[in-house]
Design goal:
Blueprint lengths: L1 E7 L5 E2 L12 E6 L1 E3 L5 E3 L2 E8 L4 E8 L2 E8 L2 E6 L2 E7 L11 E5 L2 E6 L2 E9 L2 E6 L15 E2 L9 E6 L2 E6 L12 E4 L2 E10 L2 E5 L15 E3 L10 E5 L2 E7 L2 E7 L19 E4 L8 E6 L3 E5 L3 E4 L11 E5 L12 E3 L2 E5 L6 E6 L6 E5 L11 E7 L4 E6 L4 E7 L4 E7 L4 E8 L2 E8 L2 E8 L13 E5 L11 E14 L3 E2 L2 E2 L14 E14 L7 E4 L6 E12 L1
Parallel strand pairs: 2-3
Antiparallel strand pairs: 1-47, 3-41, 4-5, 5-47, 6-40, 7-8, 8-9, 9-10, 11-12, 12-13, 13-14, 15-21, 16-17, 17-20, 18-19, 18-21, 19-20, 22-23, 23-24, 24-25, 26-27, 27-28, 28-29, 30-31, 31-32, 32-33, 34-35, 35-36, 36-37, 38-39, 39-40, 41-46, 42-45, 42-47, 43-44, 43-46
């Protein structure tokens, strides 16, 4: 039998999956709940939650900045957007989206406006006018002579043999096809024919519709074979993804053309007319591979990154023009297609949730700046990634938050400069539903009972929403990782070095701290706290120590040392 002393001075690897418990070179924990890892590798109790407002329904949060000094948090819910400035309610805006639509809404900001897209709805624009927030339907530009709408048109599969006969009946213009083609859902859509764009006004039958156009046209003698249908319409659907890149508005993943990418004319975000291919004119291309590609997200970064259901693509042309589009598939991880989890920018790389819903990937260029890699950020903590439903990154606190469908939240403390990449979990008396970072503050939607609340993390709080205690608990890795190839061990003493601490339980035993630290002016105790555990025998796969608290007081851990005996 021999004695041992084991000190853990860093927890920079966070909570480790059991699959890695035998690795000797990890600096992590067997459990990390409601703790964060500091830059030096120590542990600090997570901030509490401050109640902002009760919500009338479940909501999804989006950050919106209208100017350098005006930051808003948008709570998107059934039929409305509720807008807050910090902790203050500002205004409700009525929207067309229902609760079931909300997971698939995507958005992109351009100066003081926010563009929203959904495959079942025409794009919307949220803007502020004379101090009042308003929402309107996005409009494609019209040509100077008003004869054409500058939207993308194409010939869809299945329409190759369709011809259109143009006729007049009184003031109505009829488009009659040679076989059944039209449906009532075509009404409101556009066609391109005879050098003009046509609005479909009425559905008469499967072969007959009434259309209108601006300006005069020449009645053709023969059926039209050269015609196209608008890519975006009530019948064909609308874009599902959006971003801005090199002063172009970019749509991707149309409902009827899931692998398509449409880029507007430079500086003219409503103009998608391909024109004659001049450098500043609109661009269209399709992602081609041996697998069907559904565009899931667009990211404007060092290149235009295109995340699809099957892989990660990039347009590397600088500048991008119709003649120089260089698009390439770099990795084949794939993203979630059934809901929008907005990619995050973290330390110059793009963070996205993988298609399998069990990995957080970090997309970044290699050292040569030519090819992208998609490293798995949660390889050591895969057990914490279970069906993500929302994600957000706070660059001020260097935390990546991932909300799970079970109501818990996995949190990555990440600082590559000091070697911290630590996953842990946040829990509360209720369920986390959504998260967003606005002006450096982290806001969440929490369901408590049957009610929904907007809350935010606050370093001065040690309870949640003013009423709910939460347990902060950390457990050490089994001593199987210590290098002692032992049959069994007996722990005799545990010493915890703390800083600015006023509460501490070691193995569920309250540690005695000096009385004077509980004065309001005292930041807390600094130093070592120990308990004797009287030779407790521990199985080699057991977690050898536990540190916890539920008190409304601060706790910060710098290191943990265990003393004991082992037998080989």
């Amino acid at each position: 039998m021999g004695n041992f002393v084991k000190t853990e001075k860093s927890f920079a690897d966070g909570e480790i999956s059991i699959n890695f418990f035998e690795n000797d070179n990890l600096h992590g924990l067997g459990l990390m709940e409601n703790f964060d890892v500091c830059a030096g590798g120590g542990l600090v109790r997570r901030p509490g939650l401050k109640k902002v407002s009760q919500l009338i329904a479940d909501a999804r949060l989006v950050s919106f900045s209208t100017s350098e000094n005006e930051e808003y948090i948008l709570a998107i819910m059934n039929g409305r957007i509720r807008i807050y400035a910090n902790d203050t309610f500002v205004q409700d805006v009525i929207t067309p989206w229902t609760s079931s639509d909300i997971p698939n809404i995507q958005y992109a900001q351009r100066f003081g406006t926010m563009f929203f897209v959904h495959p079942d709805y025409a794009p919307r624009i949220l803007y502020r006018e004379n101090g009042v927030f308003k929402i309107k339907t996005f409009s494609f530009a019209e040509s100077d002579d008003m004869d054409n709408v500058q939207m993308p048109f194409m010939r869809f599969e299945g329409s190759e043999n369709i011809t259109i006969t143009v006729s007049r009946s009184g003031s109505d213009t009829h488009f009659t096809t040679n076989e059944n083609f039209w449906t009532s859902d075509h009404v409101g859509g556009h066609l391109s024919a005879l050098g003009k764009s046509w609005l479909i006004n009425s559905y008469i039958s499967a072969t007959d519709i009434i259309v209108t156009c601006n300006g005069a046209y020449t009645m053709p003698n023969d059926p039209i074979t050269d015609w196209q249908e608008a890519v975006f319409s009530p019948y064909r659907g609308w874009p599902s993804t959006i971003t801005f890149y090199q002063d172009r508005l970019v749509f991707g993943g149309a409902k009827s053309w899931p692998g398509g990418i449409w880029m507007s004319r430079v500086g003219q975000h409503g103009n998608f007319n391909l024109g004659t291919g001049l450098d500043d004119e609109a661009i269209f291309f399709t992602l081609l591979s041996d697998r069907r590609q559904q565009v899931c997200a667009l990211v404007s970064s060092d290149n235009l990154q295109i995340l699809t259901s099957e892989g990660e693509w990039a347009v590397s042309s600088k500048p991008v023009t119709p003649e120089t589009v260089n698009v390439k598939m770099h990795t084949s991880i794939g993203s979630i297609a059934d809901r929008y989890l907005p990619p995050q920018q973290m330390e110059g790389k793009t963070i996205f949730v993988s298609k399998n819903k069990h990995e957080i990937r970090q997309l970044g260029l290699d050292d040569f700046g030519e090819n992208y890699n998609a490293d798995n950020l949660c390889a050591l903590s895969a057990h914490l990634m279970t069906d993500p439903i929302d994600i957000s990154y706070n660059k001020n606190t260097k935390k990546l938050f991932v909300v799970m469908s079970n109501g818990n939240m996995s949190v990555l403390n990440y600082d590559a400069t000091v070697g911290v990449s630590a996953w842990g979990r946040y829990t509360t008396n209720g369920k986390f539903k959504s998260i967003a970072v606005c002006d450096g503050k982290t806001f969440v939607v929490v369901k408590r009972g049957n009610d929904f609340f907007l809350e935010r993390f606050d370093d001065s709080e040690f309870v949640d929403a003013g009423n709910y205690e939460y347990t902060a608990v950390a457990k050490g890795l089994p001593l199987l990782t210590s290098g002692h190839n032992a049959k069994y061990i007996r722990i005799t003493k545990i010493t915890v070095r703390v800083y600015d601490t006023k509460t501490l339980f070691i193995n569920d035993e309250r540690a005695v701290l000096p009385n004077e630290i509980y004065d309001a002016d005292s930041p807390g105790f600094n130093g070592d706290v120990s308990i004797n555990v009287l030779g407790t025998k521990t199985d080699l796969v057991d977690k050898p120590w536990k540190i916890s608290t539920t008190d409304n007081l601060p706790l910060k851990i710098l290191s943990v040392t265990i003393y004991g005996r082992y037998q080989i």
